[in-house]
Amino acid sequence: MAIFALSDLHLPLGIDKPMDIFGVRWDNYVEKIEYEWKKNVSEEDFVIINGDFSWATYLSEALKDFQFIEALPGKKLISKGNHDYWWETLTKMNTFLEENSIKSVTFMQNNAILCDGVAVCGAKGWISPGDKAFKKEDEKFYRRELIRLEASLKAAAELSDTIIAALHYPPDQVYSEVIEKYNVYKCVFGHLHGKRAEDYRCNNQNYTLVSADFLKFSPIRII
Predict the structure, then answer these.
(1) Is 28 within 8 Å of 55 (Cβ atoms)?
(2) Of the residues 12, 47, 84, 136, which has the maximum number of CB atoms within 10 A of its CB?
(3) What is the rounded CA–CA span in Å between residue 137 and residue 102?
C-alpha cells in the first residue's frame, strides 16, 4: 500500500472548460493524468486529491469526472478547493456516489480517513493575510478554515500517530503552527500554478506542493 497525492486536476469532462488556455503544459492534460496515474498507482493504493478536482458548477455536472477517476486504480480521498463549486453537504455527495456506483471515492471534510495505519485528513485552507490579495472579508473565512483544519487533525490524531494533512491553499505560519502541533508526518497542498508554483519555496521538507501541472500530471508518492 502506498499513498499518493495530486491536486488541481481541473477535470472538464462534464462541461466545456479545458485548461489549455492556460498554456501548452495543459495540452491533452486529461490523457496525461490517466497515463501517469495508471503507470504509478495500483488498486491497493490511496490517492489524495486535495482540491480543484472538477470544473463543474453543480454536482450533477461532475458525474463524468467522477466516472473518469472511478475507472482509475486505487482509492481516492477528495477534499475541497476554491474552484470546487459543485461541492455539497457530505450527505448529498455520498448519496450522489451511491446512486452512480462510485465506490472508490471518499470525501474529507472535518474528518479523517484511516489508510492502513496512516490517518489522512483534509481542509481547504484560505488565502493568507500576508498575501496582497487578502481583503477584510477574507478574515472570517480564514479563521473558519483554520478551525476546520484543527477539527480534522484532532480526528486524525484519534486514529493514528502518523498523520498526513492535505490542504488546498499553501499553509502560512499560523496554519503551519497548528499542523506542527499535531506532529504531522507530511502536509500536501496545491493551488499554485505556473510561475507561482515554480517560484514557491518552503524550508520545511515535510511540506509538498502537489499541483497537477507542477508535477507534470503524475501522482507523487507521499508514503
Answers:
(1) no
(2) 47
(3) 37
Predicted TM-score of the model (pTM) = 0.95
Amino acid sitting at position 204:
N
Q: Could you tell me which of 162, 167, 207, 157 has the C-alpha nearest to residue 185?
A: 162
Instruction: 159-163: list long-range contacts, CB under 8 Å, 24+ apart.
Output: 159/112, 159/114, 159/119, 160/114, 160/117, 160/118, 160/119, 162/117, 162/118, 162/119, 162/223, 163/112, 163/118, 163/119, 163/120, 163/121
Side-chain half-sphere CA neighbours of 220 within 13 A: 19
Residue 79 one-letter amino acid: S
Cα 44 to its chain centre, rounded Å, is 19
Give the whole-angstrom CA distance, residue 100 versus residue 125: 29
C-alpha cell at 63: 458525474
Query: Is-contact 89 102, C-beta < 8 A?
Result: no
DSSP state of 206: T
Report the distance separating Cα 199 and Cα 73, nearest Å. 32
| Distance in angstroms (rounded) separating the CA atoms of residues 169 and 189 | 6
DSSP-H helix ranges across the chain? 29-40, 63-70, 90-99, 138-157, 173-181, 194-199
